[in-house]
Amino acid sequence: MPHDSRAFRNALGHFATGVCVVTTRGPDGAAVGLTINSFASVSLDPPLVLWSLDRASDRFPLFMAAERFCVNVLDGAAQPLSHRLSRKGERDLLDEPYAEDAPLPILKKALAYFECQVEARHDGGDHVIFVGGVLSFGHTDDGDPLLFYRGRYRALTGEG
């Protein structure tokens, strides 16, 4: 049965996701980032996470060459950063504060971060699925996550 890609994407959009920025360092050592909403935990023991990257992304070669990455879970106030790093040609962290003394760029305003070593890359159609072994992580109890639902950024409303 042939499928309509737009209709499929719209159906997937009914699953609310958190928004993250994956960071790494380019070959020149520069901090680079990419907005994703494909982050998930895989295993607690050993600690593993995954995310996927579109093969058509202009950052695809950078992340394919990287052996490490950091997933930064975004706060609701980080919508401008998320929007900027979701566009082609926008990969620099610019004025976004991050831990410059760390091996990987860890966003200082992240609700949580996961520094990872690439454990595996798997073919996923028009994406590559990255599985990362968590080397270190941290989190804050302040703030609410940035969410994406039905093609738009959203915020939590009320307590659960």
What would you say this structure looks like, in words?
The protein is mainly β and 160 residues long. The chain has a single domain (19-154), classed as Electron Transport, Fmn-binding Protein, Chain A (Pnp Oxidase, Chain A). Helix content is 13%, strand content 41%. It contains three helices and ten strands, in the order αβββββαβαββββ. The protein has helices spanning 5-12, 60-65, 79-85, and strands spanning 17-18, 20-25, 31-36, 40-44, 47-54, 68-73, 112-124, 127-139, 147-149, 152-154. The strands form two sheets. The protein has a seven-stranded antiparallel beta sheet with strand order 3-2-6-7-8-5-4. A three-stranded antiparallel beta sheet has the order 1-9-10, with no helix packed on it. Strand 7 and strand 8 (127-139) form a beta hairpin. The model has no long low-confidence stretch (mean pLDDT 91).
Number of separate structural domains = 1
Beta-strand percentage range? 35-45%
Give the mean pLDDT: 91
Strand order of the largest sheet: 3-2-6-7-8-5-4
Order of helices and strands: HEEEEEHEHEEEE
Helical coverage, percent range? 10-25%
State the CATH superfamily name.
Answer: Electron Transport, Fmn-binding Protein, Chain A
Number of strands: 10
Quick tags:
160 residues, mainly beta, Pnp Oxidase, Chain A, 3 helices
